[in-house]
């Protein structure tokens, strides 16, 4: 053991010397760059979806036709099959998976030639070199690998472009990977993708969800990298029916569903890819449970979550006012999104419900925003929470909306309406037709109206007190200098004083009438 320890430094130094010699024999990683460029050319030649020039409407919005400039932030509608949407929009580009660029280790390539064998040998040497240089620190080791791969891939893209300028590549990367990276790693990755696009070597397509978009650029404002925001319309690039989506998902989950079971699933969640995927996953994980029971379990889970969101799982009349206001605003917003009637229409009788306007694809977003307007900045946060909690989502009115992020929050909503998923709408309708829940919200609205009226009375009392104090101060000033005024000036001041007294009297009478209304309402509320 003593001899091993004694000669360990010398052995390590000799090993590092051999490693350095082997690596130095390779001129700037030229062999590794060459086989990576060959991989890119092979991927380009093997692409199975060439440009379809007959689809004129798609040609106008195909992202791969333009030269790279900034990374794309592609927001995939949760109701659509994400693969189908991405394939349509990115038609004409050769996909490069992000994980192919940054593997966890320097794996050896398949032995296809002597050069591949040489690269495999070099990668083993480099892996050992980076491990020793990192002092056996895994984080430092992975960082060295990422630096190496970043350099190889950038140079390979450059060589592939020189070989054939017609080649168009795009790096396919999920935006969610940023959650697992430290801030400095996020910045380094974002800077690199900006460099790729700026040098026109490749497109970079960040795939994200509407929730991630709002969370990262508005709610948290945790991301500030400049991207071209691409938001396709729901159903525009995936016109498939719920049956078609369910067939794909059933195959992925190895489910054999009867016609009755398929009808049960579609009746529960409608033509929504994300909800169909969620329900199929639930059915696959519980093979001993019937499909009907899984559908009922998902509906119950949604009901309970929606009640918690609306604060209907607690005694709202005894809760804090902020919670009460949030409950009313959320209820009213969902009521408008689901195209349901107001309290006044309910009181008008069943015939009001039979005269519903024709249902649109979405509700005017200004109508929903107005619900939260009275709460100011708090209301803004509640509106965005409605979207990030997946109770509602923005609906694009055009085929594809292209913008830039970061941007003002209003730009995220411009040109969009607001709608919800069939699963959520069905859950809210069950609450809406529940007499007990409706009465609870009606009583809560009455209580908040009383609070607002009380606040108005307090404000009016303060305004009247200030006006009375100002009028008395004006009288005192006039009395001190009264003899100095001419008869005409004295008459003018008397008229002004009389006018101020009249205004003050009208304010007092208005407050008195409001107080009678307030007292009447509170008396009715307190009576059994």
Strand order, sheet with most strands: 2-3-4-1-5-8
Average residue-wise pLDDT: 83
The class by helix and strand makeup works out as alpha/beta
What's the overall geometry?
elongated
Into which percent range does the helicity of residues fall?
55-70%
How many structurally independent domains? 3
Give the low-confidence spans. 1-12, 343-355
* Residue share in β-strands: 5-15%
Please give the radius of gyration in angstroms. 34 Å
Count of helical regions: 22
User: What characterizes the major β-sheet?
Assistant: 6 strands, mixed
Question: Based on DSSP secondary structure assignment, what is the total number of beta strands?
Answer: 9
Distance between the amino and carboxyl termini? 91 Å
Organism: Aphanomyces stellatus
Protein name: Aste57867_20395 protein
Main attributes?
elongated; 3 domains; disordered N terminus; alpha/beta; six-stranded mixed sheet; three-stranded antiparallel sheet; 528 residues; Aste57867_20395 protein
Question: Could you characterize the architecture of this molecule?
Answer:
With 528 residues, this protein is an alpha/beta fold. It folds into three domains: 12-63 and 91-226, no CATH class; 310-400 and 416-424, no CATH class; 437-526. The protein is 63% helix and 8% strand. The strands form two sheets. Strands 2-3-4-1-5-8 form a six-stranded mixed β-sheet. A three-stranded antiparallel β-sheet has the order 6-9-7. The protein starts with a helix and ends with a helix.
């Amino acid at each position: 053991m003593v001899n091993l320890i004694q000669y360990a430094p010398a052995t390590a130094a000799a090993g590092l010397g051999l490693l350095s010699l082997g690596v130095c024999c390779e001129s700037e990683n030229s062999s590794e760059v060459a086989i990576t460029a060959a991989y890119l050319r092979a991927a380009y030649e093997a692409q199975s979806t060439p440009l379809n020039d007959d689809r004129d409407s798609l040609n106008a919005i195909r992202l791969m036709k333009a030269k790279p400039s900034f990374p794309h932030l592609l927001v995939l509608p949760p109701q659509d099959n994400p693969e189908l949407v991405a394939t349509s929009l990115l038609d004409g580009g050769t996909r490069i998976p992000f994980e192919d660029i940054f593997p966890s280790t320097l794996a050896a390539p398949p032995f296809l030639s002597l050069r591949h064998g040489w690269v495999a040998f070099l990668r083993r040497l480099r892996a050992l070199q980076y491990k020793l240089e990192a002092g056996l620190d895994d984080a430092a080791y992975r960082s060295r690998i990422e630096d190496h791969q970043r350099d190889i891939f950038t140079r390979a893209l450059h060589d592939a472009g020189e070989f054939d300028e017609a080649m168009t590549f795009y790096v396919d990367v999920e935006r969610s990977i940023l959650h697992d990276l430290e801030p400095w790693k996020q910045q380094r990755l974002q800077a690199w993708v900006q460099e790729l696009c700026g040098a026109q070597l490749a497109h970079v397509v960040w795939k994200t969800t509407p929730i991630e978009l709002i969370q990262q650029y508005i709610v948290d404002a945790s991301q500030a990298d400049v991207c071209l925001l691409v938001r396709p319309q729901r159903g525009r690039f995936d016109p498939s029916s719920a049956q078609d989506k369910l067939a794909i998902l059933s195959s992925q989950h190895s489910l054999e569903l009867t016609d009755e079971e398929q009808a049960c699933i579609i009746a529960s969640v409608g033509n929504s890819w994300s909800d169909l995927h969620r329900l199929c996953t639930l059915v696959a994980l519980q093979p001993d449970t019937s499909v009907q029971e899984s559908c009922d379990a998902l509906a119950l889970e949604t009901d309970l979550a929606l009640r918690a969101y609306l604060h209907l799982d607690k005694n709202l009349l005894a809760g804090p006012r902020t919670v009460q206001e949030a409950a009313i605003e959320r209820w009213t917003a969902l009521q408008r999104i689901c195209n349901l009637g107001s309290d006044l229409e309910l009181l008008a009788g069943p015939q009001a419900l039979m005269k519903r306007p024709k249902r649109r694809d979405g509700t005017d977003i200004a109508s929903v925003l107005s619900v939260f307007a009275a709460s100011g900045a708090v209301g803004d946060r509640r509106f965005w929470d409605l979207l990030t909690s997946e109770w509602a989502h923005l609906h694009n009115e055009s085929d594809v909306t292209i913008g830039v992020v970061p941007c003002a929050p209003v730009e995220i909503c411009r040109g969009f309406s607001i709608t919800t998923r069939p699963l959520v709408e069905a859950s809210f309708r069950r609450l809406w037709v529940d007499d007990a829940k409706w009465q609870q919200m009606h009583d809560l609205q009455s209580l908040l109206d009383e609070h607002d009226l009380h606040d108005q009375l307090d404000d009016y009392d303060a305004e009247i007190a200030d006006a009375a104090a100002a009028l008395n101060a004006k009288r005192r000033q006039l009395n001190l200098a009264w003899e100095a005024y001419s008869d005409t000036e004295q008459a003018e001041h008397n008229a002004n004083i009389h006018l101020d007294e009249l205004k003050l009297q009208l304010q007092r009478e208005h407050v008195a009438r409001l107080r009678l209304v307030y007292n009447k309402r509170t008396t009715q509320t307190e009576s059994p």
